[in-house]
Amino acid sequence: MSSLRIEGACKYFGGLKAVDGINMTVPAGRITGLIGPNGAGKSTVVNMISGVYSLTKGEVYLDDQQLTRLHVDEVARRGIARTFQNIRLLPEESVLDNVVIGYFRKQHSGVMSSLMGLPAALAETRRLREQAWELLGRFGIQAYADYEAGSLPYGHQRRVEIARSIAAEPLVVMLDEPVAGMNEVESAEMAEIFEDLARSGMGLLLIEHNVTFVSRLCNQVYVLDSGRMIAEGPPDAVTRDPKVIEAYIGGKADAA
Amino acid sequence: MMSFYYSYQPLIDFFLIAVGLGYSQQLALRAGVFSIATAGFSALGAYATAILVTRYGAPVPLAILVSAVVGMAVSYVLSVPLARLRGAFQAIATLAFVQVVIALLLYFEGFTGGAIGISGIPRVMNTGWLLLAVLVTIYVIWSINRTSVGRVFNALRQDDSVAASLGVPIKSYYALAFVLSGLIGAVFGALRSLYVFNIEPVDFGFHAMVASLTVVVLGGRNTLLGPIAGALIMAILPELARPLAENRGILNGVILILVITFLPNGVGDELVYWLRRRLRRTPKTMSKREEGTDVVAAD
Fold it and tell me: Taking the domains of chain B in order of start, what are their residue ranges?
């Protein structure tokens, strides 16, 4: 059971304090929410944890291991997966192959056995394709397995990306607006999958606009506004916090 | 059949060499490395083998092995600065590499024979050996396509930040693609020098670079059929254009423009994609597709 922690994390772009001294914990087996208005710095936090941005100050830990100065691929190999806010699939590959690449971290066959086409490497590919096929079933998109990923409707592309991110069974997965563009029924299906993943011991960080969706799923919610953490706690307490209402609706809380 | 072979033997042999160099070029491109260094690698391979065989009397297999090692070593060193560049900048850097190789070949006259090059190379290559080399190359690339390395190369070409986010050490895989490209380029350069009696720097200049790039542009960047189709067009075209005599270049240019405009993936790749689309309409996947529409309807 591993938990992801960030402590005193800051990211400055020149004079702009995109993220300014935040603390956050993403425990295993739980769904943690990160909400906030547009431009609050939510995606910046994801990019800081995953190693895309270096931290100006502060540290990132996975249990006792420090992740702060690792490269993107090293962070991923430690078991921290992510999706992207603006969906990034491999557009020319089939839906199935987009998920198969997600197993990279779990592969055992080496480069030489791949170059020589050894039976072990071929068997691994077959096995991963079968696993990917089952995962597509879990996300209800088996019917699209052969299609080019770029040709799928938006909501289905999101599912492919989420499937790819959890394929290698990461310890923690950060989902950047996973149900954007989905209707009620579809996001309820996603919610079910997220709860399953949490039950299996994975830690989930849900970055969302949709406060209702977050409130229903999360035990702990963090609220970010202009790079500062303005509230944290259980969802019903946080959504009643005057500072949060002010950040979302604007103006003074008592006027709202 | 045999008479066809005998009358066209040189054409077939040069076709096989062009296919090999085409795979060297294609391997870099399909992994997202915009390299045009293949001509430089083939020059290194050709000169290493020619010098070892003519001057030191080295056995041919050893000379080819040394060429392979030289190709891999140089491409590995080159991959370090190349990993910091993208797209057109990689093309310019590798173009510079080819020019540097040519300049060095001209400069170290005592060692490389300067502008005159090296002559008297024993002709030990024949269609059989060249075919074997092409088949081994095809086998390796076919293996890559069916396993993890091929998946990573495809991911690098389409979006390397996605590959990194999934744990792929992208610099190592860019280097791997480039080293394989260097290896294949150098080996086919060596085989070529063992076929043509004499080599000179001009054989590996701008013309050679455009030729191996053309094979991939005409044939295709991603599929195994690509370089074969491209090299086939390049081999047949001069024969068909014989009546045009001096103006053959015009036909080359016209064909290139037509292919880029109407078959941007290349003749070979388009053919493979077309076949795949046809196969997807088999009854089994047809039912899958109908399920797909049901899902949409249910939404």
Answer: 2-298
